[in-house]
């Protein structure tokens, strides 16, 4: 188990209209100006936008893999430790984070593969 950083970045690159912004310690990901994720290479973690209920469920289920990052605008962000998750589950969470930020018409044009 565990997802290499390159695989996570490929998942993000496969999504439509993703914009990347690099800062000193992390890269952020947005779709049409709305942020949906972060990547911290030093810690091999990602932050992903989720619903509040999904944030609570993930952290309660596996606190060794997920932790609360913050809540904002009715959404709960989770930190995901790449070493503790498999590729299929991460792909679903990445798509969900993107879907929560993308306009409805873009989501309709790009359903989860």
UniProtKB/TrEMBL annotation:
Q: Do you know which Pfam families this protein is assigned to? A: YjbR (PF04237)
Tell me which InterPro entries the record gives. YjbR-like_sf, YjbR/MT2646/Rv2570-like
What name has this protein been given in UniProt?
A: YjbR protein
What is the protein's species of origin? Prauserella flavalba
């Amino acid at each position: 188990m565990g997802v290499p950083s390159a695989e996570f970045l490929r998942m993000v690159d496969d999504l439509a209209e993703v914009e990347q912004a690099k800062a000193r310690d992390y890269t952020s990901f947005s779709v049409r100006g709305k942020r949906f994720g972060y990547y911290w290479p030093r810690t091999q973690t990602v932050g992903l936008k989720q619903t509040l209920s999904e944030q609570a469920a993930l952290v309660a289920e596996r606190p060794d893999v997920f932790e609360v990052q913050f809540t904002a605008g009715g959404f709960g962000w989770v930190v995901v430790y790449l070493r503790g998750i498999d590729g299929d589950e991460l792909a679903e969470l990445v798509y969900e984070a993107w879907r929560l930020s993308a306009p409805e018409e873009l989501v309709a044009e790009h359903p989860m593969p």
